[in-house]
Amino acid sequence: MMEKCSNNKSFIVFPLLFCFLLFPHLLLSLENDYIRGPVRELVTTTNHRSDSDPQQVHISLVGKDKIRVSWITEDKHTKSLVEYGTKSGKYSSKATGTHTMYQYFFYTSGRIHNTVIGPLEPSTTYFYRCGGSGPEFSFNTPPSKFPIEFAIVGDLGQTEWTQSTLKHVDSTNYDVLLLPGDLSYADSQQPLWDSFGRLVEPYANKRPWMVTQGNHEIEIFPIIYPHGFKAYNNRWPMPFEESGSTSNLYYSFDVVGSHIIMLGSYTDFDDKSEQYKWLQNDLDSVDRNRTPWVIALLHAPWYNTNEAHQGEGESMRQAMEKLLYNAHVDLVFAGHVHAYERFTRIYDNEANSCGPLYVTIGDGGNREGLALNFKNPRSPLSLYREPSFGHGRLQILNETHAHWSWHRNNDTNSFEADGVWIESLINSKACTKTQEKQTSHEEL
């Protein structure tokens, strides 16, 4: 039916109108002259390896030159051992980490292993094996200097659209993947966490995945599990302690002249909270001479012209926006809204050339479908918006310039539908002088 609506030139007016009545998302997508298909089926994966072999393997950055390898085994006695080296089948080094398990009602997880390996050389391919058996994996370490490229995708889920997005992300090289929340969409159905881990393993075992939580990671159940994030914290540990944070829900890390801040939309963030105090100290510690780029990610967007999730990030914006503005944060990425939207540089609801550039990228492929309705008339702050599945690329070329692009899923191909060149705020004398004046005024 979809092909007939879009391709059959013999259609007359009445059948065409009937087609739009059946599929209203076709009409809504005409703002960008692209016809987007409906939600696709949920994809579930099963384990075909032995109980002692690793599954759901993924890696993440730890500190300057280390990698955390995370995986799960059904066998409860497998060691948390990683053997690794720069030649396939020849492992010159090894490290032993820790393991844990968790229970959620009648579900008991497999043995969750976490082992940090390194120090590692930059721009190098390493081969590794988990637990002393099973398949060999490999990954590439990030470079030591510019350029560096980030793939950015939010609200990923595990549908056929997710598969399409991941294939497009993997079609060209990148160094690190950033995910601003909503990973598996398990929503307390714990086996779906395992299915998600197996789905993303071919991608997440060869490039570092750095994630923060979304609302679908909360999984609170009153009295029994009042604090939430049990599966998320056990399965996706991030380097929070290395950044001085006390919570896996917010942290930061450095990679190639870039300071990346992962904020928690679903933990306390007011000016008396631990997260606020941590963020204040974290931003103060950044040396912009050595780290010219500062980028923040969170789940619920602070700026949003889509009708979905209106105002849900407002209280966090009011609490923390000034901290980011005063620190010259260059870009802020969010998810939650299942569409793509790029704003101009903003501070306090007004265009401001010294504020961060805001991007919503909650369009990875979730099972809930796209947020099709944008508010009209369009806000002058919103420069490009489209309800389509896709992913983003941030190429930081040097200390002063980067290029951002958004790639729409055209099923078998990926199409760059939006792109913009960005200059680092710390390179803007106008912004740094304005900030110096503001700081002096506040001290008086």
Automatic annotation (TrEMBL):
Pfam families: Metallophos, Metallophos_C, Pur_ac_phosph_N. Residues 150-340 form the Calcineurin-like phosphoesterase domain. It is an enzyme of class 3 (hydrolase). Residues 1-29 form the signal peptide. Keywords: Glycoprotein, Hydrolase, Signal, Zinc. Coiled coil: none annotated. It catalyses: a phosphate monoester + H2O = an alcohol + phosphate. Residues 355-412 form the Purple acid phosphatase C-terminal domain. The keyword Transit peptide does not apply. Residues 54-141 form the Purple acid phosphatase N-terminal domain. Its EC number is 3.1.3.2. Belongs to the metallophosphoesterase superfamily. Purple acid phosphatase family. This is Purple acid phosphatase. It comes from Lupinus angustifolius (Narrow-leaved blue lupine).
